[in-house]
Design brief:
Length: 308
């Protein structure tokens, strides 16, 4: 892992900097590269435009590691409102939540109850509830939450991180559920005994897991989503899907708002199912630092915003 990446990921946990930066105009200007705006209506308007271009949406209200259960209640209420709006506007949209945003640090039971409420509402709204995967200290608890949710709700998806050495075994253990899985490379700073430190090993693990998921999809055993901007990997997985005759509707590609927008449209035109994850909200600092860490060249945009 590069020094710049480790430094940015370490900075992402600094709460003092988070408070300082969220108030700075230059930082808020730079963040706009990755989000249409801080308000839910900004995200909804962007989703409407994407829908007109045949691209679906995933919505995430930013915020993580809450310290009071009352705050988690407010997050749950927000997503219940959002699911109503998704239904009323007939948007092809799914919400994606972080367990620590729904109280996981404070109570696993309360977090599960919040997720249950959202999963039931998502189902009723014709949507699907996504659970993000946070750093490796949360994986066991997040898998347990997913299993409990799947006992009652089919329309729930889970992110798995290719960078983690444990992920192939975690995927195997989930197979009896015929799971909906978003495969991502992994955005957190992890020790080398937990995650592959070299990017080429993470890329290789992604390809292997991706091919496995497509083989499962070919016989209805999983619904794979590839959450990546890695065009080379997407091309290889597309070839594999074709060779296995996996229907275009049986797997999807998800990317983040503001990254490879032209490729999102090109892939859609080529017949792929594409969705854009749109984030919004005021608590963007740790999330934004993770975006900079993915491509330290992005720091240049922050510098330009300082003077522009
Ligand atoms: P990689 O980092 O190799 O990038 C490939 C290319 O994409 C780069 O060369 C560059 O051109 C472009 N690119 C990538 N990131 C960029 C950036 N920030 N700015 C500009 N260009 C960039 N992680 C996690 O741990 N838990 C989760 O739940 C999720 N959820 C999630 C959902 C979705 C829909 C996506 C797309 C991603 C996530 N992630 C995530 C983040 C993921 O783990 C990973 O950090 C990023 O997607 C970057 O990795 P890539 O796969 O894009 O490859």
């Amino acid at each position: 892992m590069s020094l710049a990446r480790s430094a940015l990921l370490a900075v992402s946990r600094n709460q003092w900097l988070a408070r300082q930066m969220s108030q700075r105009t230059f930082a808020r200007r730079a963040v706009k590269r990755f989000m249409p705006g801080e308000e839910p209506e900004d995200a909804l308007a962007a989703a409407q435009d994407l829908a007109a271009a045949g691209i679906g949406t995933i919505f995430t209200q930013l915020g993580e590691n809450l310290t009071a259960l009352g705050d988690a209640d407010a997050v749950r209420e927000h997503y219940l409102w959002l699911l109503d709006v998704i239904r009323q506007r007939a948007l092809p949209a799914w919400p994606s939540v972080k367990p620590t945003q729904l109280g996981l640090d404070l109570s696993q039971e309360a977090c599960l109850a919040n997720l249950e409420t959202l999963a039931a509402k998502a189902e009723a709204a014709g949507s699907l509830l996504w659970i993000d995967m946070e750093d490796s200290s949360y994986v066991d608890r997040t898998l347990a939450l997913f299993r409990s949710l799947r006992e009652k709700h089919a329309k729930v998806g889970l992110a798995l991180q290719a960078c983690l050495r444990r992920t192939p075994a975690d995927l195997d253990a989930l197979l009896p559920l015929r799971p909906t899985i978003r495969l991502v490379k992994g955005a957190y700073l992890e020790p080398p005994h937990v995650a592959f430190p070299a990017k080429r090993d993470v890329d290789a693990a992604f390809l292997q897991l991706g091919e496995r998921l497509l083989e499962l999809a070919a016989r209805g055993g999983a619904f794979p989503i590839f959450g990546t901007h890695d065009i080379r990997l997407i091309a290889r997985l597309t070839d594999h899907a074709r060779a296995l005759k996996v229907a275009d509707s049986a797997w999807e590609i998800h990317m983040l708002y503001g990254i490879r927008a032209a490729d999102q449209r090109r892939l859609t035109a080529e017949g792929r199912k594409v969705r854009t994850l749109i984030s919004y909200g005021r608590s963007w600092f740790p999330w934004y630092m993770r975006r900079l860490a993915e491509r330290p060249a992005n720091v240049w945009f922050v510098m330009k915003s300082l003077v522009g």
